């Protein structure tokens, strides 16, 4: 697996209006498994690893032009798995919003019935990731659908669940101020900047991954956080990869007087754009 096994994102929490419809979509079209869940909640998993937590609020309102979720990204363990997923989406008549070859990965983009952005992707081997002057290179090139689909036979289907090894690879967030968000994820959460696209997007990670967190201002520059009671992102869980980084985060939060709360061993806080993060220690 290209991603460091110690670094795992998720589950991503979403507030939804129609829980039954959303669960049906994610089970039937994405291949997530419903785990035992509390009332008005659904925990959806791949290989028994929770990836999404859906919390129902029938009165939730559309957030409008705010910060929040751009997309969450489900990382599949192989190119064959991505090809099988593509065939499954096609067979189910699920429309894609886009697709791309990012040089480090190949990706499919779609949305769930309530408009939450979804990326499903596979990574190229890390030693194949291109670099220019030592810096990671990414692009948005056309995806070769024919070559991807050639990885599978038309008779191959997804089955009832996503394959073992599927994880939440990264989360891409809408932010109001790119510089402030980048500083937070770098200096407070201890991530390393991997790539910046002009003044509108940046990609950060632990342990040299191409990105665990993406941030952009394409649709949210100078926008407020979503008001309470909105549909969409409620929180992102970040499993901090090691004790050294966890200690640095605790010190940075304390020294920076960053508002936070603790629940059990978890640290809850918001980034400068109001996106809620739940940090879990190693």
CATH topology: 2,3-Dihydroxybiphenyl 1,2-Dioxygenase, domain 1
Instruction: Tell me what the CATH architecture is.
Output: Roll
Main sheet attributes: strand count, strand direction, barrel closure: 8 strands, mixed
- Given helix and strand content, the structural type is alpha+beta
Question: Got a strand count?
Answer: 18
Question: What is the CATH class designation?
Answer: Alpha Beta
Percent helix: 10-25%
What oligomerization state is this entry in? single chain
How are the strands of the largest sheet arranged?
Answer: 2-3-4-1-15-18-17-16
Strand content: 35-45%
Uncertain segments are none
Distance between the termini: 20 Å
- As for the number of domains, it is 1
Reading the helices and strands in chain order gives EHEEEEHEEEEEHEHEEEEHEEE
Radius of gyration: 18 Å
By DSSP (H or I, 4+ residues per run), the number of helices equals: 5
Mean pLDDT: 94
CATH level-4 homologous superfamily: 2,3-Dihydroxybiphenyl 1,2-Dioxygenase, domain 1
Q: Tell me the overall shape.
A: globular
Features:
282 residues; alpha+beta; 2,3-Dihydroxybiphenyl 1,2-Dioxygenase, domain 1; 8-stranded mixed sheet; 5 helices; 36% strand; globular
Q: What does this molecule look like?
A:
With 282 residues, the protein is α+β, with helices and mostly antiparallel strands. It has one domain (64-280): 2,3-Dihydroxybiphenyl 1,2-Dioxygenase, domain 1, CATH 3.10.180. 19% of the residues lie in helices and 36% in strands. The chain has five helices and 18 strands. The chain has helices spanning 19-30, 79-91, 145-149, 178-188, 243-255, and strands at residues 8-16, 33-35, 41-46, 49-56, 68-76, 98-101, 105-111, 117-123, 131-132, 135-136, 167-174, 192-197, 201-205, 213-216, 232-239, 260-263, 266-270, 276-280. The longest helix has 13 residues, at 79-91. It starts with 7 loop residues before the first strand and ends with a strand.
